[in-house]
Design a protein that fits this description.
The complex is a heterodimer of chains A (512) and B (130). Chain A has 512 residues and is an alpha/beta fold. Chain A contains 16 helices and 18 strands. Helices cover 55% and strands 19% of the residues of chain B. Classes of the chains: A alpha/beta (512), B alpha+beta (130).
Chain lengths: 512, 130
Amino acid sequence: MSTLLQEIEAQIAGVKNTASKQNVGTVREIGDGVAKIEGLTDAMLNEMLDFGNGVTGLALNLEETEVGAIILGDYTSIREGQEVRTTGKLLQVPAGKGLLGRVVNSLGQPVDGKGPVKAETAYPVEKIAPGIIRRRSVSQPVQTGIMAIDAMIPIGRGQRELIIGDRSTGKTTIGVDTIINQARMNKAAEAAGDKEYRPLYSIYVAIGQKQSNIARVISVLEEAGAMPYTIIVAAAASDSATNQYLAPFAGAAMGEWFMDNGMDALIIFDDLSKHAVAYRQVSLVLKRPSGREAYPGDVFYLHSRLLERCARVSEKYGNGSLTGLPIIETQAGDVSAYIPTNVISITDGQIYLETDLFYQGVRPAISVGLSVSRVGSAAQIKAMKQVAGRLKGDLAQFRELAAFAQFGSDLDAKTQAQIERGKRIIEVFKQPQYNPIAVEVQVAILWTVQNGYMDDVAVEKVKDFQTKLTEYLTSRKADLMGRISKEKAISDALAGDLKSVVTEFKQTYKPA
Amino acid sequence: MKISKQARRDAKELFLSCLQNGLLDDEKVRQAVKQVLASKPRGYIAILSHFHRLVKLDIERRTARIESALPLSADLQASVQASLTGVYGPGLSTAFVQNPALIGGMRIKVGSDVYDGSVQARLAALQESF
């Protein structure tokens, strides 16, 4: 027995005496949040480096005799000659449902003062997107609650749809509206105990934005009760460029957790123009060669690898999805600039917002001609396809006729009717912010306008008519609305009921 | 000092020409420096300063710095040398240094590899774990 004890003791003593091998380097240069480190011969690309005192770095440039690293956090305490160690770990952020309702920074640390984040696991920030075998095509809709989008530029789960436009044209509002609508639908499904409904969780990534803007978005989401289904990743304008560069990747990692676990998530990158600028800054201080507009050569790959991570995976791999809504801010409506063209070519369509429309009072200021959704129509519910199938074409025709009609007033009755219908459709699509509309109401309203029930309502009264009709449908005809959302198609019987309900409403309708 | 790409390339070429069987030949290095100083090619100061850096890094890579709190016995020194040669191959020079700050144990640094079995490192690890 005593020999056994001695053996164990010897083994323990042996373990204690083992000196672990570490790979170290010394800081040769430090500035602008970027350090050049001599040594570190075993460093991997994107590996976390330990600078001591809780400061970490990320190895981005592996050169012949030195390593270029970006510092995550406070770099002012780092001195030349300081020792740096490799950690053998890639950068990770917490992931899981514990993050819902929280505001975190690019490293997943809470910034909302609500205590530590209870995360289930950690996910690597840089991850290869799901491959061809794991994917399936988009087939389920993301209801944004914005009628113009849901009807004409539908978005499906797993799609990447770019929101592009000049400053203050309502880009963020579309994202926030979508988040609010998802929260409403999730809540409604929970309340109804609908097991078939797949909740959609949202992630809002703010990159290089003013702190006040981020605070406003958070307060809007809180007021709408959407925060319990939302994660906010904030890298404000005052954060370092390195944190701004990492924020969308951290958000994507959090979204991937939902996708990998068979759930659906939506991620909004607000915005990728500022992300490209932050990456340009990091690249220039790392002395990487610069290309067009001083952006580094891999700025396309930066966004393509990020957006490729938004996907719909097949049932064999969990049937989850991550829908991406990247936002790009253009300068004076120039969509042919470097970063906008890059992101347009990566995404599955774009929603183009125009300043002119915005000031004409068409809000959301969606330019129907320039906006497309390449895959979303496959995900649209049948009822919506039935009522909105021809809308885009009708509106295009209307614009052409309206331009032609300016030259003279002698128009035949058919053309006149088309113009009048077009005017009413445009009115119907106007929608106040943070006020998403349920899909069954959208279907009923569009059915009404497409079947000519609004033709005798004056254009300026269309909005009033629509509001009152919505009120009537949701309060008095809730069963009909329930049938539309359940059947998801307009059968002859349903069309008959809709006809009688709208006729009944019109008899009582008095314009305000 | 700004070192141009051409100077870097020249210094690298100079450095490679000083290698013999993959190891740096001290005599060749001395000769190379003398010749460069004599012929003074364009940007020779930059070439030499980069060459100096390359030589410094190579020496660091091939030098084992063994720190211990107390002086090591000759036997122990020999065994450490032998095992390091086993890992890093021949041509490794060793330097034994006394460092009381380690408190106990040994710290061996070869290039950017560090084997730290000192009491100081363990205390630091313990401190970080809190």
